[in-house]
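Lab channel / #folding
Pinned by the channel admin:
"Please post every new chain as: sequence first, then the structure tokens as a reply. Keep commentary short and put observations after the output so the thread stays searchable."

First post following the new format, from NK:
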Amino acid sequence: MPLDAVTEEPWGARTLTASRAGVAAYDFRRPTKLSREGVRLLQVTFETFARRLTTLLTSGLRQVCHVKPTDISQQTYEEYVTGRPLPTLIVPIGIPQLQTTAVMEFSLPVALTAIDHMLGGPGGTQPDRTLTDIETTLMKGLLDQMVGVLTYALEPVAVIQPTIGAIEYNPQFVQAVSGTDATLVALFDLAIGKERCEMSLAIPLAPLLPKLNAQRARADKDTDTLLRASGDARRVATHLAGTTVDVTVEFEPTQMTPTRVLELSAGDVITLDHRVGTPLAVKVGDMTYANAVAGRAGSHLAALITDTLERL
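Reply from TO:
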């Protein structure tokens, strides 16, 4: 009798699919309860997390950064920690709303590169060493912001208010859950400047299942409505695809008194209220469509798009 096979979803997500005989494979060592719809919702969640984190790091470090999801799989917690490199930077993330603890991990050289950029340095190749007390404080501030992005990304699944724990360098020292507990492991390609590594995020699966099942039931009710709307959306997109529009890239507005405006003359300098690290607004008409950071392309000024409003 043919059994199920593991197939590849976009960017490597592994799920079980039904065989032609309608029989699903069951591994008693690793019972899989996550539906295909649940995996797809998590893919969208982690894609959102990656896009928002790209914007956060690029704006905050003033360096071109990139975060891309590469794989999502189910592992026991013991399999996860034994598969991570040593040493590495790993931090527990307490999620009291789900009564569980997640884990985030990435390489020490990438962490040191981020700290170097936070201090105004050029980045570049970094030693593979643990953080000093000052560096630990700076990294915790960045981790707080990264966990805030995770909070936003997980909103469609669960509303959480996570907190980070103490930074560790040996995954075996972070006992977030029991070693036999099933965890959802998401892997990302993380690049800060020229320094790259594999970043991982492990979330216990059991507390997420009820949330994912609830979302699936809600999605089933909305399917018919979405199908009807998709035809109209395609027709509108077809007619508007070739339209030319004016696009502007704007800093935050600066307030001035009428007297100051009337006194302006050639050579005067206006101080902008736009804070360093705050994204620029890319506008079409009066609507903000995307975020960007200032840059240069050859001899021309340019703006690097970091996120679009429809994906935020």
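NK: Residues 52 and 149 are 6 Å apart (CA to CA).
TO: also worth noting, Residues 1-9, 15-21 have pLDDT under 50 and may be disordered.
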